[in-house]
């Protein structure tokens, strides 16, 4: 998986993610997924990592707010604003690695988001989580987040780990 880590969001979403996001339970910091799946670690050659670094270097650090709550059917998430630069980076990464594995479930289009609670059961659970999250967020526009690198993440028996860090350009 390729992801932007957003550890500065932890004070507002950490406790909810610890309860309601399986990836948080495995040590994955708040993040925005860029590409999933990516390559298994044994398939991450030096040339692929150089290609990744080259693509990352073409994009400036990303600064955004996370103050709009949105939902998918069983997920409550925060929308980064502006989202277009994140979507552009994700599209460039997808184009740079056409040979990467594909997910069994494809979506119509990429939606940049930071998941807070996943696998919620029913509309009432989604509504309750949305209220809980809203009560914890700072005032809109008061906190901006910055990502200066993207991470190749790997999950093993010990949880999630960063295998490679690709700095974004300046």
Describe the structure.
Helix content is about 30%, strand content about 30%. The protein is globular, with a radius of gyration of 16 Å. The protein is built from five helices and eight strands. Helix 3 packs antiparallel against helix 4. The protein has helices at about 10-20, 20-25, 45-55, 85-95, 125-135, and strands at about 1-5, 30-35, 60-70, 75-80, 115, 145, 150-155, 160-165. With about 170 residues, it is of the alpha+beta class. The longest helix has 14 residues, at about 125-135. Strands 2-1-7-8 form a four-stranded antiparallel beta sheet.
Low-confidence stretches: none
Strand percentage:
25-35%
Instruction: Please state the structural category.
Output: alpha+beta
Strand order, largest beta sheet: 2-1-7-8
Number of helix segments? 5
What's the count of strands? 8
H/E element order = EHHEHEEHEHEEE
| Largest sheet properties | 4 strands, antiparallel
Mean pLDDT: 93
What oligomeric arrangement do these chains adopt?
single chain
* Spatial shape: globular
Evaluate the radius of gyration: 16 Å
Kindly report how far apart the N and C termini lie: 23 Å
Helix content class: 25-40%
Overview features:
170 residues, alpha+beta, four-stranded antiparallel β-sheet, 5 helices
Short description, anyone?
By secondary structure, the chain is an alpha+beta fold. The protein has helices spanning 10-20, 22-25, 46-57, 84-96, 123-136, and strands spanning 2-5, 31-35, 62-72, 75-81, 114-117, 144-147, 149-156, 159-167.
